[in-house]
Each structure stands twice: as C-alpha cells, then as structure tokens.
C-alpha cells in the first residue's frame, strides 16, 4: 500500500472541498476522517491572526504527519494550516486522513490536531479593533498532546 | 561573535522587538549560559528566563542539556509556547 503525506501552509483562505480532493484514499482505504478548526466568535473579536516560523513550522507539520502515519498505518494524511489574519467563521486548520479502517482514520486525525496545537510553531493573536491579545496554549492543550506523546512509538 | 537574535510569539512584545544583532565577547557553551549572557544586554531581557521557551539555532531546535557550538553570524530564535490549530 502506498502512503504519503501532504502539507499545506498558506496565507490564503482554506478551500475545504479542494483540500479533500487532494486526499488520495485509494482502493485500500475503507475510511476517511476529517477535522476542520474554525475561528470562533467571542467577545467582539474582529480577527484572529496566526503567525508562524518560515522553516520550523513546515518542518514540524511534516514531522507530525509522518509520526501519525507511522503510528496509525494511514494511507494518506493531509494537514492544511492557515497563517495571517482570519475573520470569524474562516477555517484555521484542516486535517484529513485515509486509512484501511475507521479507528486508524479517526485516531490519526485526533493525534495530528492534538499534537499540532502545542508542537507546531504557531502563535495566535485575537484582534479587537486595533488592539490584540496573545492566545497562550492551555493546560488542556498540553495534556491532550502529552497523552498521545507519552505513548508515541 | 556576532549573533542575530529572533523573538517569536508573545516574547516579541515582552522584549519589545522582533530581532536584533548583538556582539558577544564570550562564547556561551549552553542555552542557559547564553540566556544569562543575553539577559543584561536586552531591554526586558529577563523574559528569556521563561522555562517554557524553545530555542532554535539556524532553524534547528536545541535543548538546554546539549553543548552549544555557536559561530559568528549564527541566528538564534527564542520561541514562546506554541498555540496552533
């Protein structure tokens, strides 16, 4: 079975349908799972801004995708992440995995988003008018990533 | 030894700049030693003592435990905890 990962890091709005078409599920895949994270409205938020590192961020996404594929035996995994300013309702991240069975497809996507949140170099700012607040990772973010990483193979 | 320092995430606001170039007389042999060398040289330099920061040299992550081999014109990035997705 051929396997591959596909990383998209872009300042353009994510086109979810176009991204899903990039997934090469193939005849050996019995399940496809996807996750999309969106900018949530809160307290007069006018925009969410994601900043990244030109070299370390794509390298981290590749590393996470490779780890997820090895761990769960998925055939194809796509991780697409936005940077720049986004309006409420716009997608921030989209992950899609194709695997022979449903549990592997579901788990690889859960793994990728949980680990990505604290292991890929992104930083968030919430804009309200011309002022911003940094969004720090939560204890829950760290615990979810640690749960997967403690048992990493 | 001339180093380019880069600051990412909330740390950028804490030290008041995105990047700067400094010349060091000493050649620190570890990340903790480098941080202690830089603290008095930067405005709000004590922000570098945050134990949750990650450090990368020339786009390669480094751990506090490893021996540093810094060279002239290296780029040292200090990165606040990540918050993606």
Automatic annotation (TrEMBL), chain B:
Protein name, per record: MoaD/ThiS family protein
Coiled-coil annotated spans: none
Matching Pfam families: ThiS
InterPro entries tied to this protein: Beta-grasp_dom_sf, Mopterin_synth/thiamin_S_b, ThiS/MoaD-like
């Amino acid at each position: 079975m051929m396997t591959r990962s596909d990383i998209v890091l872009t300042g353009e709005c994510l086109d979810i349908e176009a991204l899903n078409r990039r997934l090469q599920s193939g005849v050996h895949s019995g399940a496809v799972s996807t996750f999309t994270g969106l900018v949530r409205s809160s307290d007069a938020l006018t925009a969410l801004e994601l900043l990244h590192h030109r070299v370390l961020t794509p390298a981290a996404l590749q590393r996470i995708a490779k780890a997820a594929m090895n761990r769960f035996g998925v055939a194809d995994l796509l991780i697409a992440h936005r940077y720049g300013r986004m309006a409420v309702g716009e997608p921030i991240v989209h992950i899609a995995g194709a695997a022979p069975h449903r549990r592997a497809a579901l788990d690889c996507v859960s793994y990728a988003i949980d680990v990505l949140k604290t292991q890929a170099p992104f930083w968030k700012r919430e804009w309200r008018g011309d002022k911003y607040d940094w969004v720090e990772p939560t204890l829950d973010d760290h615990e979810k990533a640690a749960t997967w990483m403690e048992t990493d193979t | 030894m001339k180093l380019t320092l880069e600051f990412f995430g909330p740390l950028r606001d804490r030290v008041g700049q995105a990047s700067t170039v400094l010349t060091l007389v000493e050649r620190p042999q570890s990340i903790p030693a480098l941080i202690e060398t830089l603290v008095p040289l930067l405005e709000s330099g004590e922000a570098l003592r945050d134990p949750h920061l990650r450090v990368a040299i020339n786009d390669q992550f480094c751990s506090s435990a490893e021996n540093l081999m810094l060279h002239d014109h290296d780029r040292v990035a200090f990165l606040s905890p990540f918050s993606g997705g």
